[in-house]
Amino acid sequence: MDRKRRVVITGMGAVTPLGLSLDETWRGVALGRIPAGPVKAFDASLYDTKIAYEVSGFRFDPKLVAGREVAFLSRCGQLGVVAAHEALAQAELLHGREGVDPWRQQVCLGVGMNSPDYAWYDGIFCDARWQDPSVGGLIRYFPDQLSSVAARLFGAQGGTTTVHTACASSGQALGEAFELVAYGEAEVVLTGGADSMISPYSFAGFSLLGALSKHNADARRACRPFDRSRDGFVLGEGAAMLVFEELEHARRRGAQVLGEVVGYGITESAYRITDLHPEGEGPVEAMRMALADAGIAPHEVGYVNAHGTSTPLNDRIEALAIHKVFGDGDGAPWVSSTKTMTGHMIAAAGAIELVFCVKALNEQCLPPSLNVAAKDAECKVALTPPEITSHRLAYALSNSVGFGGSNTALVARRVEA
Amino acid sequence: MRSSVSLSGRDCVVTAFGAVTAQAIGRKALWSLLERSERPAALGMPEFKAAARFVDRKYLRATSTCDAVALASLTTMIEARGADAVRYADERIGIYVGAAPASAHGNEPYIEAMLACRDAGGMSSIREFGKTCMTSRPTTLLMGLPNNVLCYGSMMLGARGSNSNYTVPWLGGILAITNAARRLRRGSLDLAVAGAYSAYGTDLGRALYRQLAAAHDLPDFSESIADGAAFVALERRAALAPSDGLTTLLGAGVASDGLGPMCHDPKGLAFERLLRQVIADAGLEARDVGLVLVGQTGMGRLDALERSVLARLFAEAPALPAVASLHPVLGNLMEARAVIELGLVADFFAAGAIPAAVQVSGWPIKVDASRRVALIMQASPWGEYGCLVVRGDG
Fold first, then answer.
1. E strand or H helix at B127
2. Where are the alpha helices (DSSP H) in A268-338?
3. pTM above 0.90?
4. Chain B residues with beta carbon closer than 8 angstroms to that of A147
5. Which residues of chain A have a CB within 8 Å of the CB of B255?
6. CB proximity list for A377: less than 8 A, separation 6 or greater
7. Is B253 at the interface with chain A, CB within 8 A?
């Protein structure tokens, strides 16, 4: 099938450091909350970075899944299940629905690296105790387990896909889900992302790369995208899920339509494992591809949710890339990074950031740019005001850029009721 | 409405194939192994050193052993494609990878740091690890990155087009091929490279699967787990000379029972429906299939499910296809299995018969030259299924 069909969003769900549901999360964005603080998950007192955005008060209810499935879910998987539940419930597809063909339903998720507890490594791995019964339990760290559980939640038989391209994972999963529906491979796809890397290993790894902020004394101001004193990102965790559905299929069953995805761009920088190309090659092409796919001109995009990690390199080059695509002046979009409010959710970043784009389109507002005391003059983008602001929006674009060089851009638009 | 990729009419040609397994590197060596019916002693590759095979050694610095196996197989594919092959613009080349899903990242630098802060009681302190870990190599995190092969592979190929990396156990290779072919078919790529690697042939990997099998009432198949990797190049027929190409990909797809992890429908209805749909979308019927490549990986009821689906699929066919399982010689190659089989389809048709060691009892061994269509079918213990339909010439 070559003709593109329209892809709408009929359900969304989220669990983030801002809240245990999408409503709570968005309320946090509207208030400009910054839930960063000292790491509670483990004793980080001797690490270079001691701060994170953690999901507080999360207690997984095992009744959300079949009893046997609990053993297949790590914390990342649990976060994902809760968000998936919310999205499927809103779409009225939880546990299947009469008249909706399960063969035409799929799951396509971006799921994080996942790794066992430090204590497991210390007690089992270091001494190669492979006969220990805990080894079988490592299955919960296979990223695909969440996809498998999620498929069962609504009886999807069309296939499951799990993507991992580091920070671009869920941006990529959303894009592939979009294409599955647009090109007729599926009518409904549960898509999104989940990640939880607030652990000793991950902190060690990102610290060694010099990627994490060391503004430990003021956790709430540590993540400062596009500010000239930025020094790295602050890890977050969480999940965001969306239900993508073919428009006529949604209308026939009376589903509410929350927004529409109209374009997707995907490129590979093929440059270095961590660094962006100095001229923004990769992200520039991804954004242009998404705009072309959407059939719109750059000036029609009113808001760009940047990847905006708060690292010196990413923000500068991403801003350059945005400037190359959109220019400046009246036709240029407003730009913000919402990672000041969620932290960097790594594999889940693309998904939550598209959710924020959809919410912004629905509510005709611009998410705030926080912690910008002095904007980096090299970042030639127009940052949104420091508080949520009413603004007429027709289209929004979300960028994701990952270690390994995958770059994604997704364009969403408002759907009038 | 189709739920799989139909490529008929816009032929998607397999123009090159490269593979690395514990026993053989490259297509010729692999086929020779099957013909000689050699079953090697070791199927894992924990000590594989790929330096001599790499296009550029700098990619080795932050890669694990299984990444090295995968990148070596990509190198053999690039070599097989040849220096005179058609050149495409970077943004028209894409790479799709089925990665072995990682469960524990065994990075030696972290382990050293952990051991360095062990107390007299033999347990280390998370707090102290925060200090000792900073003596590790800066690239330690990157060694566990599941998309390393995608990243370094894209550099090797100059591939800046669409891409993806799938962490789906067993079916990663079929997913990579399916989505690469979709992009080729839609015209957004001119060269789509797809492949996969499996990496559970280690002590830890075998222990994991041994325990998993025991917990889910499956026979212990851990000793047949094999490490390996393979990549294929997919190009459009119109861009090639008439004699170019190994085989033609006519269809591909995936499906699932939707019953949750490690749970599958014993009747195999979703599996059967997938096979019928992909064959039909390719404009064919079951009777057109002359060769089937199955798993039969010693997994008890999963093997039984596969056999019953096979029997039902060809129940009405006037003549049964030849059936082969590479498992007795190559072991259980999991994510890489389907890619390797895709690369060897042409050899099966050229030979005209299934080599003795990979015959499946109860099924023909003569490959009918008049039915040059192959079906590659794969089932995973997760109740997920995949298949490829291939014409046995380029």
1. helix B126-132
2. 283-294, 312-326
3. yes
4. 168
5. 103, 157-159
6. A228
7. yes
Measured distance CA(B215)–CA(A346) in Å, rounded:
32
How is residue B151 written in tokens? Answer: 């990243």
Indicate the pairing of strand A105-111 with strand A188-196: parallel
B105 Cα to chain A: minimum distance (Å): 7
Nearest-by-CA chain A residue for B215: A136
Token pair recorded at residue A71: 């053993």
Q: What are phi and psi of A161, to 5 degrees?
A: -130, 135
Helix (H) or strand (E) holding B199: none
Are A410 and A354 a contacting pair, CB within 8 Å?
yes
Q: Do A144 and B382 touch (CB under 8 A)?
A: yes
Give the Cα separation of A357 and A351 in Å (integer): 10
State which amino acid sits at residue A333: P
Active site residue A307: yes
- CA B194 distance to own-chain centroid: 9
Q: Under 8 Å CB-to-CB from B100, ≥6 apart: which residues?
A: B66, B167, B169, B172, B197, B198, B199, B200, B334, B335
CB nearest A46 (choices: B115, B128, B214): B128
Question: Which candidate in B60, B110, B186, B254 is best for mutational testing of the A interface (most A CBs within 10 A)?
Answer: B110
Sign of CA dihedral A196, A201, A203, A209: negative
| CA distance readout (Å), A28 to A41, A305, A341, B79 | 22, 17, 8, 54
Do residues A233 and A211 make contact, with C-beta atoms less than 8 angstroms apart?
yes
Instruction: For residues A272 and A283, give the distance between their C-alpha atoms in angstroms, rounded to a whole number.
Output: 14
Catalytic residue among A167, A357, A365, A379: A167
Residue window 330-369, chain B: list those with CB within 8 Å of chain A.
none
Cβ-Cβ contacts under 8 Å, B207 against chain A:
130-131, 135-136
Alpha carbon of A268: minimum distance to chain B alpha carbons (Å): 4
pLDDT (tens, 9 = 90+) of chain A, 417 residues, equals 456 999 999 999 999 999 999 999 999 999 999 999 999 999 999 999 999 999 999 999 999 999 999 999 999 999 999 999 999 999 999 988 888 999 999 999 999 988 888 889 888 988 899 999 999 999 999 999 999 999 999 999 999 999 999 999 999 999 999 999 999 999 999 999 999 999 998 898 898 889 999 999 999 999 999 999 999 999 999 999 999 999 999 999 999 999 999 999 999 999 988 889 999 999 999 999 999 999 999 999 999 999 999 999 999 999 999 999 999 988 999 999 999 999 999 999 999 999 999 999 999 999 999 999 999 999 999 999 999 999 999 999 999 999 999 999 999 999 976
Q: What are phi and psi of B376, to 5 degrees?
A: -110, 120
State phi, psi for B338 to the nearest 5 degrees.
-65, -35
Q: Which residue has the tokens 């080795």?
A: B60
b/e per residue A219-250 (b: at least 16 CB within 10 A): bbbbbbbbbbebbbbbbbbbbbbbbbbbbebb
